[in-house]
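pls ignore typos typing on phone
magnesium ion + seq
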Amino acid sequence: PSNHHLHQSSATPRQTPPRSQTLSTRREVYERDFPLYKQPVEVGCFSLDSQRRFFNDSRQMRYYVEPERSPNFDLRDGYRERYVKRDENVKEKLDHILRWIVANRSKLKSKLSTNASCPLDFDFVTWRGHLTKLLTTPYETREGWLLAVTKFNGTLYISEVETEAACRERENCPERNKEMMYWGYKFEQYMCADDTNGEPDPSGVVNTNEAFCTVVQTRLTDHKLLFSGEVDCRDPDPGAPPPPACYVELKTSAEICTPKQRSNFHRFKLLKWWAQSFLPGVPRVVAGFRDHEGTVVSVETFQISKISQVIKNEYNCWKPTVCMNFCCDFLSFVKREATEDNPSVVYLFSWEPHNDVTYSVHRDSQYSFLPDWYIKEMTR
Ligand code: A3P
Ligand code: MG
Ligand code: MG
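k done
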């Protein structure tokens, strides 16, 4: 008998263990062949402006600008004077994705049904960032998560709930960390232009309300997925491949000076970078390595498809197959347990490091997240 405890064995009913209401996150359980993951296809996009207003278009798209060899970008510049930070106390849940779905319903109609109130042809709707957290779970030792799931018209919607620990951390965030969070956005400003032929404008304001998001569809084994993720910029060449292959993810990281730092970069940073970009099919990450004073000292491109090669010689390192198989089994677990089709019911899946995934059920609670306007629009 295998320890793939979630798979129904073909044994007689008497020998079948009781179906577990929990899911293991142990790495060994997920070491098997890489699951089928279809090439993600962009089905649309949307933009959020400087006031976080939704637009069903690509107005916030930015264009990648190749930097000089040693650019010396000062990431601290503008932190006090030219920084507008998104209000993290506003919980947007899936609202922007739901608005996009409502605005694009006609092109999402499943091929089989032609009536107006046909259900969406997806098993899951969520943010890319939530899936990234699932992919990295078997290797995460610090931060747990809470994922609220509601089944509505046959589709499972997954929306993150901030844990108490994450809320405390955010509220007690040291000033140094707050400033370092700005550095990542400032790097984007040095690397991007607003137009295909434009130049970056480091004298401008960094406003983290602004976002360009891609919406992609794909399939992980038998799970049909629709998710959205923020995209930093695209290749400005009009001859570049179509989205998502033309997209570029930007990252910053501390300069690597010792073998230990290199090993940590491979084992922890590259896991997160790989998971985030692999999911929507973004092929490359451009990384700015910075010193302690926040000056970018070098820029390096990582092809997502080559990251597994880069980490190969790392002892006890993460494996893409473990990430994808865990995500796949989690989605199967959700399908099996979250069965009541009711927009006011939330199945709250909960995980803390070194534990199994568990869940609880909540009716008409603080956790309900599908807005009335969405339910109304989708039941018409
Ligand atoms: P870095 O990418 O350089 O870390 P993203 O890279 O996903 O486009 O996010 C842009 C920036 O937002 C990040 O820059 C980082 O500064 C900030 N950021 C994103 N997620 C964060 C998180 N979980 N905690 C802290 N900062 C985060
Ligand atoms: Mg981004
Ligand atoms: Mg980025």
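Residues 230, 232 surround magnesium ion (ligand 2) (CB under 6 Å). Residues 24 and 63 are 42 Å apart (CA to CA). more later
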